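Write out the 3D structure for:
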Amino acid sequence: MKTDPKSKADLSAQIAKAIRDAIIEGRMIVDERLPSEAELSEQFNVSRPTVREALKRLAAQSLIRTQRGAFGGAFVNRLSYEEAYGQHITTSTLLLSMNGVNFDVACEARYALERACTPMAAARRDPDHLATMRAEIHRQAQPGLSDEGFCASDVTFHRALVDAAGNPVLSYQLAGAVEAMQPLMNMITFTARSRGEIVTLHTRIADAIEARDADAAEIALRELETYTLHLGRDVMAARAQNS
């Protein structure tokens, strides 16, 4: 591992990248202890504060963990899908908001990804997934539920559908779609949409998943996509006219 003196990145970032690359490429394995700060300082020919900053960067990415005591130090961390969800959702949210992804593009991507997991969800769903979906449908039908509560329930319903596919890699990839794209779409459409229409479509989706009917679930998802697209376009058109 070494740094590039010609690189414009600061030394701590270069050190963090060198160690990250070693972990990703398998040259450093899970639970392996990293060299001490003094050893890394000598290896990279930098000060210990610079090494310390590099280790902080790696810890922030959940790539390493630190332990105190006689057998302490910094160790390569085993990153779980659950731990990675938060970072993925944050990154997806920032990408969408900072790069001005338009509503149609976000909607198209979000539903295309979810439809991809529908056949697996229909085949692999278990009682817990179905119970979550039914509970959220019941919650969404309550007249006293706030807009924020309805949006949160909407996300939980679709998260259960995705998780029912039983594929952790797919669930991770869809975390950004369901928990980043969907809330942003909800913010645009919540004032115009019919809760009754959403509940009806969610019920059809849950019924189809329970019956292991992937085709019916996909049809209902496509209708939900069409409904969401029309709502978003109407809202955006009204906003443009008012401005």
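Strands lie at 64-67, 73-76.
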